[in-house]
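Progress against Task 2.4 (sequence-to-structure conversion) is shown through the following example record, which the project officer requested during the mid-term review.
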Amino acid sequence: MISYRKIISIALPIILGGLASSFVNVTDTAFLGHYGGEVPLAAAGNGTVIYLLLLMAGIGFCMGGEIMIARRVGEGNNKAIGKIFFHILSPLIIFSLIFIVLTLSSINNMINTICKSESIALATNTYLSYRVFGLFFSFISQAFKAFYVGVIQTKIIAWNVLLVSAINVVLNYVLIFGNWGFPEMGIRGAAIASVISEAIGLLHYVYYTTRFDHKKYDLFKIYSLDWSLMKTVSFLSAPIILKNVVSITSWLIFFLIIEQMSQRDLAISHISRSIYMVFIIPLLGFSEATSTLVSNLIGRGEYDGVIGVIKKICLLSFISTVLIIPLIIFCPEFLASFYTNDVSLIKDIVPTLRVVAGIITIFPISYILFCGVIGTGNTKVVLMIEIVSVIVYIYLTYKFALDYKLAIHWVWCSEYIYFVLMGIIASLYLASNKWKNKIL
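Structure tokens generated for the chain above:
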């Protein structure tokens, strides 16, 4: 039986890394909000969502490999892990280069099509034309992260994110505002800072891994391409990739719908989303632990322990998230002031943040159940759950925003339905026991 202490030991470094990463997102948004107001703030928000949409393809591919690595660890087959890592890393290098070229060749038409405001479209285009180069470094870094999560050695992830975050904050301060003798670059500076930070993060992973016990896993061997293994990784990863793309696309569509309401509502939503992402950091750490531990238990043949460990993680995730909700409820103006000094904007954000506080009481349970399904390896079910939940979510967002013309905080209530539906479907699947004896 996996103890609460074991779960926390796996999740805590990821949580600390997530805190550092979210701190960067907060400072990025805050710097741009104070630098140029609503337009660069909204543009960087849009550009980041598009960047995440591309990155999620790589993360999804790594997630499939991570599940396989955790399964082999559970089986005691460590020597197979290096080969799996190679078959994750190689395609990711190729995919990143393809995505960079495709994005640069289509960025103008894409941004002009999806953005209503010309000023936001121009700024988004500027941001993304620099930011997209970070995909190369991020894709490869995700492969290393998948390896370390899969072998349940997560401390390096926290140190890596802390390093990247610290460098990014300093570079943002220098390049956005033109401090320390550097030219003032505004939104371009924010994008360049992120790319440089990601490159340094990758170098850190490579350096650490050369000093790690990589021979135990045959990690740096050059393998001939095993089409059977590549097929297994691809078929396992493809639904997760599609799930991630669907998830981030829904996020992008949400913001595009909000933009049709007003530029003010879009700024409110980007700031609220940034605060939202900070407060769910504990959940994201526990979610990584969930899929890894579930796959590891199945690899060891301990099927009866799966539901028990999911329940434990649900409890830990719920407690860790709910404990910080009072900060949103009682100090919303204080949180919003980090992002803007516009008093009227801060006042308008408060109702949406109150809605966010309610959402993150549901999120911890629903998403951990969902990640439990991911850990079983039945990724087709994962994709089905995501698609059903997103269709309902987007439909309600559209109706609330454009048909009923509700205030922005009521539009955000569509997130309640999204997570409730996700949790119900995931729990029904886990209770069915159809995930047992899934061979990877």
